[in-house]
Amino acid sequence: MPSIDIRRPHRLSAVEAHAVIDRVAARMREKFQVLTQWQNDTTLSFERAGISGKIAVGPDEVHVSAELGMLFSPLKGMIEQEIRRKLDEHFA
To answer: Is residue 92 part of a domain?
Structure first.
């Protein structure tokens, strides 16, 4: 299975970074019917048919990792581009 692994530095406080990821998760749920759940205060897991992953919020970095199933494999480049764009938008 293809995987995605993106890290982006940030300068937000833990509370601010968590709030940003909450907003992103709400959009993912609305737009893509993704199930999301905080595993602890720093890691949000997400899943739907064909994709699963995590968004880990560190003190100075956000780390997105995902595994793509066969359905989403051909879209890997587009998915990575959109993740990078959103991270730049919210954490630049």
So the answer is: no
